[in-house]
Amino acid sequence: MPYTVLMPIFADRILHGGAKGLGILMGFTGIGALLGALTLALRTGIRGLARLTSICCAGFGISLIAFSFSKIFWLSAALLIPVGFFIMLQMACSNTLIQSMVPDALRGRVMAVYSMMFMGMAPFGALLGGAMADRVGAPIAVATGGVASIVGAIWFARQLPIFRGEARQLIMAQGMVGGEPAEEMTARVVQ
Fold first, then answer.
1. Phi/psi of residue 180, each to 5°?
2. Is 31:81 a contact under the CB 8 Å cutoff?
3. What are 14-59's pLDDT values in tens digits?
């Protein structure tokens, strides 16, 4: 996510759009994020969310790399739509999966840890991204983040069979989940 911290550099120094350009770039990211949220809202179940998470992570990385090398303002703005779309969909899918698998009694605690890790690590990522941009330039720093996202997506996709087994055991240990037999919940969550 450090690309958002580096966005003023792109808006001003690389794309020569100034403050108005920064607003437009961030607005296009927001349009993508809104579309991502609506896409998940239109889904009727949680089947396939784990696979979708890895696809979105890879799509985010590819879009971010393309954005980092664009020198044309409106092309850069257009490339931020898939960036916002994929990051929002990935975060929402992850959040949904975690809440679906965690027992009711632990859900608040687990989500607190998840939120703390997500929000608590952002300043460190911003510091690393800023330091890297200072050394090698903002485009290379953002592209490196995109590559890291793609590597993470590949790793996650390869670990999915293990994660599915663990999720299955976790759900089965709960017996009934919200009045629904754990077997039915397991079939929906781990696919």
1. -105, 135
2. yes
3. 999 999 999 999 999 999 999 999 999 998 878 888 899 999 999 9
Q: Where are the domains of the chain?
A: 3-189
Q: What was the pLDDT predicted at 72?
A: 95
109 dihedral zone (left: phi>0; alpha: psi -120 to 50; beta): alpha
Could you give the angle at the alpha carbon of 159 between the alpha carbons of 154 and 160, nearest 5°?
A: 100
Does pTM surpass 0.70? yes
Q: What is the DSSP letter of 102?
A: S
Report the number of secondary-structure helices (H) and strands (E) in the chain. 7, 2
Can you give the length of the chain in residues? 191
Phi, psi for residue 43 in degrees, rounded to 5: -75, 145
Note whether 93 and 105 are within 8 A (CB).
no
Residues 6+ apart with CB under 8 A from 151: none
Looking at 1.20.1250.20, 1.10.1610.10, 3.30.465.10, 1.10.600.10, the CATH number of the domain 3-189 comes to 1.20.1250.20
Neighbours of 112 (CB within 10 A): 10
